User: Which sequence fits this backbone?
């Protein structure tokens, strides 16, 4: 797992079938993720957060939802 800092932003997403106007994303993504998922999304620069890794997040979610391996 990479420990390089990554920048995450909220985005203004383009209109779609359910939203006739541009709307704000409900979660943060990197610019690369947003370009793949939502072509035309614009980052909201004031919402920038820098993360150094996601190991702790995955470990917490596995323990919380029981998806991790059983204790030995």
Assistant:
């Amino acid at each position: 797992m990479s420990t390089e800092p990554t920048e995450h932003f909220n985005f203004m997403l383009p209109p779609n079938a359910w939203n006739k106007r541009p709307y704000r994303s409900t979660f943060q993504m990197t610019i690369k993720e947003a370009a793949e998922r939502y072509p035309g999304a614009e980052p909201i620069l004031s919402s920038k957060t820098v993360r150094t890794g996601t190991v702790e997040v995955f470990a917490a979610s596995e323990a919380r939802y029981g998806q991790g391996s059983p204790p030995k």
Notes: The CA atoms of residues 13 and 68 lie 34 Å apart.
